[in-house]
Recover the amino acids of this structure.
């Protein structure tokens, strides 16, 4: 059984107001998708293609207009009580805007530990030990836990943001353009660390991006979204043979000599 299954998912929003006839604006149509435990899938698409909307639906932050999102066999929209709490533990979303994930009046370590306080039975000592381990995994030091968010650089804060998402050992992490504001060296360092985690723990990842080179570096599979529909779904080894025009545009945008997944595995 797949960890995550999406079947014939449609989603849209109403437009207009009291004085205008209400119209329907489709955002996603006919989405079918499956993700296995321990798999990393790249979700590619241009701005407005519906990538972030799909991310919110995968994590149950919105309910689809039609179709189903199933996690470990359960319909996400129907989860209640302890089942909903278990789902919250199992999935995490990392946005591009790292500062929004942190309380500016609290230390970075306090914010990283927040999911542990609400979704685990760890003691304060165990929480602190977990926070320091996560910071080390992300290439940060123990002293960063005692700083306020504004005292960290953008790259440091985004690494702390990813550490926060990993705090409760989720089964699925969705990275929604989470690496877009980082320089290329830091992007690749983070992806190496996350790939090591994926191999060790079986955590699945969805990397949402418009950067084909990052997807080729990190993912086993690539899904291309155009105008709210999946138009390509293929192994990453064939990511440079897209047939859809958008895929060919993304191919042309890849920098010469961009690292491939083979480079990551060798590292």
């Amino acid at each position: 059984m797949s960890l995550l299954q999406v079947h014939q998912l449609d989603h849209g929003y109403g437009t207009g107001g009291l004085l205008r006839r209400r119209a329907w604006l489709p955002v996603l149509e006919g989405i079918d998708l499956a993700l296995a435990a321990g798999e990393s899938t790249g979700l590619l698409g241009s701005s407005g293609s519906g990538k972030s909307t799909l991310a919110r639906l995968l994590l149950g932050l919105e309910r689809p207009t039609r179709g189903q999102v199933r996690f470990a066999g359960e319909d996400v929209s129907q989860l209640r009580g302890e089942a909903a709490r278990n789902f919250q533990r199992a999935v995490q979303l990392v946005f591009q805007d790292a500062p929004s994930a942190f309380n500016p009046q609290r230390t970075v370590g306090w914010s990283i530990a927040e999911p542990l306080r609400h979704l685990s039975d760890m003691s304060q000592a165990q929480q602190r030990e977990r926070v320091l381990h996560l910071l080390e995994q992300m290439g940060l030091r123990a002293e960063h836990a005692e700083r306020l968010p504004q005292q960290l650089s953008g790259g440091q804060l985004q690494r702390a943001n990813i550490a926060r998402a990993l705090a409760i050992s989720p089964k699925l992490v969705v990275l929604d353009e989470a690496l877009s504001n980082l320089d290329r060296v830091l992007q690749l360092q983070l992806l190496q660390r996350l790939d090591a985690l994926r191999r060790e723990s079986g955590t699945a990842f969805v990397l949402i991006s418009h950067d084909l080179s990052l997807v080729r570096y990190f993912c086993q599979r690539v899904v291309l979204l155009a105008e709210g529909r999946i138009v390509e779904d293929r192994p990453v080894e064939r990511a440079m043979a897209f047939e859809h025009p958008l895929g060919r545009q993304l191919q042309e945008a890849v920098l010469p000599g961009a690292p491939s997944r083979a480079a990551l595995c060798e590292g």
